[in-house]
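--- STAGE predict ---
source: upstream dedup step, 1 unique chain passed
mode: sequence only
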Amino acid sequence: MEKRVVFRLDLPNRKTVGVKAKPGKSLGEVLRPILHKYGYKLELVTLCLVSISTVLYCNICLVLISNVSCHLLNLEEQQHS
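--- STAGE serialize ---
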C-alpha cells in the first residue's frame, strides 16, 4: 500500500476539501488542479496553516503539512475589500 499525505483545505467559499496525495509532490502540483476545479488560480491565493497562521509556499514538500488544516485566502477578494 502506497503512503499518502492527507490534509484539510478550507476554501474562501466556506467549503472544505480533504486532500490526499503522494508525499513526493509539491504543494503547488497538488493544489493547482483542485483550485482550478473550484474557480481559483494558484497565483492569486495564499495558503496558511490554521494552527499557527503561517504562510505556506507552493514549492514545499507535502510531507511538511501532513494531517493539518490549511486555510486558503483569495487575494483578488482582499484587494477589492
